[in-house]
């Protein structure tokens, strides 16, 4: 045992001697603060964090020690690693989306049919809501005429009649709000489908040869085309005064409802009648509101033709510009 210990200690001593000799034989090439190159077996303490080369006895570079990184450089490297990790995460997400896209749709037509089906379903819903709006306007007119007749005869209005009138007004406002929301849903569907179609063509190496009918066709009129945003109550109040002016100027039917959230002329009776309804939807989580206008012609062949004329189009388009001018004054 003693002999083994002596041999082991002797081995350590020889190894240490060789290490000392190897260290002593190292030559360092380093640069001082003035840019001068030095060769020495030791690097001064003040330059120990600088870059340096280790040379063999023949002067050949056998190793290189990089400059010690500053805290700022370390922080930048850590930030870069985070960015690379986030980039990789986004790449993986996109790959997963691509796989879903290719599994869901075999052709461009499949994708377009899916989009068109969603849009058609929403349009059907909007059509039903507009039908309800026409009936509510007619019902409101009847109730208001009944109320006016009772007042002329000196009769007091019943509580139920007043409640029905107010309830119908609220339903009208809510119906127009729903139409706006549905139109916004359609915009989201169109935008998502357009991005999916472009990505699908890229993944399939397809050329954009077949024009999308939804993109080339004339866009249907939408309440969104008349939306004007006001930023706070004073601006909204000022714009709302202009809304009333506009409705009074272009509606050919009598003013049927006037409040701080809805201005409505009576439903069209004659083929040449133009009915306008404007709404003010206040934001729930911040100041301001969205103002918009709906135009209605009589639901008859001649009324439908009237709604397709340039005159009606100018009334629709002019609303937004009329309010924008008032907000900028």
TrEMBL record:
Keyword entries, A-Z: Coiled coil, Signal
Signal peptide (UniProt feature, chain positions): 1-24
Family matches, as Pfam families: DUF4124 (PF13511)
UniProt keyword Glycoprotein, yes or no: no
Domain DUF4124: 15-77
Coiled-coil ranges per UniProt: 66-97
Protein name, entry field: DUF4124 domain-containing protein
Taxonomic source organism: Sedimenticola thiotaurini
Lineage, uppermost ranks: Bacteria, Pseudomonadati, Pseudomonadota, Gammaproteobacteria, Chromatiales
């Amino acid at each position: 045992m003693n002999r083994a210990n002596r041999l082991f200690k002797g081995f350590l001593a020889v190894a240490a001697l060789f290490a000392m000799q190897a260290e002593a034989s190292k030559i360092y090439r380093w640069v001082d603060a003035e840019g001068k190159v030095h060769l020495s077996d030791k690097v001064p303490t003040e330059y120990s964090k600088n870059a340096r080369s280790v040379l063999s006895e023949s002067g050949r570079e056998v190793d290189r020690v990089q400059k010690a990184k500053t805290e700022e450089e370390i922080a930048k490297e850590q930030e870069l690693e985070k960015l690379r990790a986030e980039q990789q995460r986004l790449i993986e997400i996109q790959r997963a989306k691509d796989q879903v896209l290719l599994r869901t749709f075999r052709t461009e037509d499949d994708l377009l049919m899916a989009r068109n089906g969603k849009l058609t379903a929403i349009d059907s819903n909007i059509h039903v809501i507009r039908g309800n709006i026409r009936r509510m306007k007619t019902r409101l007119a009847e109730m208001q005429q009944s109320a006016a007749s009772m007042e002329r005869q000196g009769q007091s209005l019943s509580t139920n009649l007043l409640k029905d009138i107010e309830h119908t007004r609220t339903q009208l406002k809510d119906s127009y709000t729903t139409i706006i929301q549905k139109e916004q849903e359609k915009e989201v569907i169109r935008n998502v489908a357009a991005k999916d179609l472009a990505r699908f063509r890229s993944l399939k190496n397809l050329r954009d040869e077949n024009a999308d009918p939804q993109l080339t066709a004339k866009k249907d009129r939408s309440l969104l085309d008349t939306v004007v945003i006001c930023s706070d109550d004073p601006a909204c109040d000022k714009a709302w005064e202009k809304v009333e002016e506009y409705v009074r100027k272009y509606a050919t039917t009598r003013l049927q409802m006037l409040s701080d959230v809805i201005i409505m002329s009576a439903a069209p009776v004659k083929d040449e009648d133009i009915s306008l309804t404007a709404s003010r939807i206040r934001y729930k989580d911040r100041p301001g509101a969205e103002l918009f206008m709906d135009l209605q012609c009589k639901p008859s062949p001649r009324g439908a033709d009237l709604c397709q004329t340039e005159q009606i189009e100018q009334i629709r388009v002019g609303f937004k510009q009329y309010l924008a001018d008032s907000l900028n004054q």
